[in-house]
Design a protein that fits this description.
The structure holds two protein chains of two kinds. Chain A has helices at residues 33-38, 48-65, 85-102, 111-125, 166-176, 183-191, 216-227, 232-244, 250-255, 259-286, 302-310, 322-325, 330-342, and strands at residues 2-7, 13-19, 23-30, 75-81, 106-110, 134-139, 144-150, 154-160, 291-295, 317-318. Chain A is an alpha/beta fold. Chain A folds into two domains: 2-123 and 324-342, Nucleotidyltransferase, domain 5 (2-Layer Sandwich), CATH 3.30.420.40; 131-315, Nucleotidyltransferase, domain 5 (2-Layer Sandwich). In chain A, the strands form two sheets. A five-stranded mixed β-sheet of chain A has the order 3-2-1-4-5, sandwiched between helices. In chain A, helix 2 (48-65) crosses helix 3 (85-102), helix 5 (166-176) crosses helix 6 and helix 6 (183-191) packs across helix 10 (259-286). Chain A is globular, with a radius of gyration of 21 Å. By secondary structure, chain B is an alpha/beta fold. Helices cover 24% and strands 26% of the residues of chain B. A seven-stranded mixed β-sheet of chain B has the order 1-7-6-2-5-4-3, with helices on one face. In chain B, a hairpin with a 5-residue loop joins strand 3 (68-71) and strand 4 (77-81). In chain B, helix 1 packs across helix 2 (41-51). The longest helix of chain B is centred in the N-terminal third of the chain and has 13 residues, at 11-23. Chain B is globular and about 40 Å long. The chains are: A alpha/beta, B alpha/beta. The A-B interface holds A 10, 39-40, 42-44, 46-49, 82-86, 140-142, 160-165, 167-168, 171-172, 176, 204, 208-209, 212, 216, 219-220, 223-224, 354-355 and B 11, 36-38, 42-43, 57-58, 61-62, 64-70, 83-86, 89-90, 93-95, 129.
Chain lengths: 359, 144
């Protein structure tokens, strides 16, 4: 059973062809990162018209790479939320049009469930079955959520960020210090060269749900740290580096980043990782989880992966491969597969929902 | 709404100030939240959204990545964030016309970036962190 998946919820235009929810025949992501450099490294591709421009070639490329055709498809799936309505509508409408013209069932997918299925998909490829109930930590630029995943892949929201998403904290700290966009990969690479115990961030204790996250205070603490020092010249050096070379190497970055700043980055990263893993482990314990799933763009973070391993948790921890961590359409097709098996199809009237909830 | 200045010493106090400000907002008000990183824009938005009865403060998070959040059913509140936006055309591509045309309250973080986008009767709220960590929040506008 072959599904064409389409994802346009935020910055990326993506399409993929996946067989039986496990064999990825193609996964194409039109990443606009190259375009960002031109604008100084910070511009995301937000306009729905950019998705409009990319959707036809991206879907065509996905079908070609899969050596497939509309006629071979069993169903068409697209992200229906959460995300920007204008962006969601492009992929959703395109998928509905194929569904209507080719008389194939249409399936709407929640983007966050897609991230969870990135892990399910790869576990299936290895012949592993993720035991349920599981705890899923979905962590990216836009999301920081903890879900209990119960048998039948039903979800219960246990915690979420009350302010900034973890990936957003990375991006804002990186921009503040002149490291450009996106911030996660650069900070992750440089953090390995700093002392994670050098700066102690005292975070305010939160009232309310103990499984909720907060990263805004940490961001403000980093801002204060930088204000207390004069970092103008090193920040300027990094901005110049980015202007000369939009993709600096690790050595390039190290040459313009003094040890104190490396220590700050390492301490920042350590604090984020501790926050994420402490709450994930507490939530997992609370629901007697038999597995921990970490997914979303921040799941690429090598520090997070290493720290999760070191915790030696009493259940397996699953991370997706880097290409399936960030937004892609293979995960959308994978999440649609069980719905296809159950014959759970959506009407062509399914709306794009900006704040679509998983639970 | 006339010019007013608040001084808050905690997240709770900032939320309470936002609730108070919400009471003075007419339908369709456009509120620009202006201040540096960490000044308390999202926290104040939590208070305003709460004061308008559109959502619980815990439901209100930063729209930096997602760009636009929408709260409430009766009196709708749009929570926009222009941090990632580089030029006014991109901002317009968010569908601002539509957000601004109804009776919904529109809160805009980093709203000072593209002043030409907003109606003249907008309300401007400036936030700033003081030396002691407290926040000074001043608002003006709204046709006064």
């Amino acid at each position: 059973m072959r599904i064409l998946g389409i994802e346009t919820s935020c910055d990326e235009t993506a399409a993929a062809v996946v067989d039986d929810g496990v064999h990825v025949r193609s996964s194409v992501v039109a990443s606009q990162l190259a375009t960002h450099g031109k604008y100084g490294g910070v511009v995301p591709e937000l306009a729905s018209r950019e998705h409009v421009r990319a959707i036809v070639p991206v879907v065509r490329a996905a079908l070609e790479e899969a050596q497939s055709d509309y006629a071979d498809l069993t169903a068409v799936a697209a992200t229906s939320g959460p995300g920007l309505v204008g962006s969601l509508l492009v992929g959703l409408t395109f998928a509905k049009a194929i569904s209507f013209a080719r008389r194939r069932p249409f399936i709407g997918v929640n983007h966050i469930e897609g991230h969870i299925y990135a892990v399910v998909l790869e576990a299936k490829q290895r012949g592993e079955i993720i035991e349920l109930p599981a705890l899923a930590l979905v962590v990216s630029g836009g999301h920081t959520h903890l879900f209990e995943v119960t048998p039948g892949f039903r979800y219960r929201l246990l915690g979420k960020t009350r302010d900034d998403a973890a990936g957003e904290a990375y991006d804002k700290v990186a921009k503040l210090l002149g490291f450009g966009y996106p911030g996660g990969p650069v900070i992750d690479r440089l953090a390995a060269h700093g002392n994670p115990d050098a700066v102690r961030f005292t975070l305010a204790r939160m009232k309310g749900n103990p499984l909720d996250f907060s990263f805004s205070g940490l961001k403000t603490a980093v801002l204060r740290w930088t204000r207390e020092r004069d970092l103008t010249s090193e920040i300027e050096a990094r901005r110049q580096l980015l202007r000369r070379n939009p993709r600096p190497s690790l050595e390039d970055w190290l040459a313009v980043t003094p040890q104190t700043t490396l220590d700050l980055l390492a301490s920042f990263q350590r604090t984020v990782i501790e926050e994420l893993l402490r709450r994930a482990a507490a939530a997992a314990e609370q629901v007697h989880a038999r597995a921990l799933i970490v997914s979303g763009g921040v799941a690429c973070n090598s520090g997070l992966r290493a720290a999760a391993r070191q915790l030696a948790l009493p259940y397996p921890v699953y991370f997706p491969s880097p290409q399936l961590s960030t937004d892609n359409a293979a995960m959308i097709a994978a999440a649609a597969f069980p719905k296809l098996e159950r014959g759970e199809f959506d009407a062509l009237t399914l709306p794009a929902t900006a704040r679509l909830r998983l639970a | 709404m006339s010019a007013r200045v608040f001084r808050t010493r905690s997240e709770e106090e900032t939320i309470a100030a936002g609730e108070q400000m919400a009471r003075a907002l007419p339908p369709g008000a456009v509120v620009l939240l202006i201040g540096e990183l960490g000044a308390g824009k999202t926290t104040l938005a939590k208070g305003i959204v709460k004061g308008l009865g559109a959502a619980d403060p815990d439901e209100v998070s930063s729209p930096t990545f997602t760009l636009v959040h929408e709260y409430g059913a009766g009196p709708k509140v749009y929570h926009v964030d222009l941090y990632r936006i580089e030029d006014a055309r991109e901002a317009e591509a968010l569908g601002l016309d539509e957000l601004l045309s109804g009776r919904a309250i529109v809160l805009v973080e980093w709203g000072d970036r593209f002043p030409q986008l907003w109606p003249p009767e907008r309300i401007e709220i400036r936030l700033r962190e003081l030396e002691d960590g407290s926040r000074e929040i001043s608002c003006r506008g709204g046709g006064t």
